[in-house]
Specification:
By secondary structure, this protein is α+β, with helices and mostly antiparallel strands. It contains four helices and six strands; from the N terminus they run E-H-E-E-E-H-E-E-H-H.
């Protein structure tokens, strides 16, 4: 993968849910085949122009910081993966070597990555349920409509978090099932 001058850049605004990481990876790989290589990810993706090539992108959810994160990134680099960017706790990795091992070499390690995300979503769900209940019981005379609007927003967030927990839990179950059903 050869990258040309920094002047050839583009940005794309694209939304991916946390449970859509494989879809996001495929999109980034398609962009690389078109000659656009990720510089920064998130919601506004920035790319630099280069020679179109096949490369793999992987996202990994990691909450570690400091030395633990640095050691993990070094381990990935030693396996042939370049750490491209970090958005929140999502880490973007790129690999141009088709012979390099996958970032997660077994389904159980990938499931562990998604389990870390699941813990965060459950914590956010509990927080938003508490805020919804507080908005419901915290109504004051004369400003009921304000509290009702806040309550509906929180109910929407609770619904979205519940759906995300459902999707990620299902993905983890699939990964673990594939581990159990492997031939010895």
């Amino acid at each position: 993968m050869t990258m040309q001058g920094e002047s050839a850049t583009c940005s794309r605004v694209k939304w991916f849910w946390a449970w859509d990481a494989p879809k996001e990876e495929k999109w980034l790989e398609r962009m690389a085949r078109e000659g656009w290589f990720l510089v920064s990810g998130g919601i506004v993706f920035r790319f630099v122009r280069g020679t179109p090539s096949e490369c793999r992108y992987r996202l990994d959810y990691r909450s570690e910081t400091g030395q633990a994160l640095s050691e993990y990134i070094d381990l990935c680099r030693d396996a042939g993966w370049e750490h491209v960017d970090r958005f929140a706790n999502w880490h973007y990795f790129r690999c141009a070597d088709p012979a390099a091992p996958e970032l997660h070499t077994d389904p159980e390690s990938l499931a562990a990555s998604y389990k870390r995300l699941l813990v965060l979503l459950i914590a956010l769900l509990v927080l938003n349920l508490g805020l919804s209940i507080n908005a419901h019981f915290g109504r004051r005379v004369g400003i009921d409509s304000f509290f009702q609007a806040i309550q509906w927003v929180h109910f929407g967030v609770v619904g979205l978090l519940t759906y995300g927990i459902y999707r990620i839990s299902g993905f983890i179950r699939q990964l673990r099932a594939s581990t159990r059903h492997r031939a010895p």
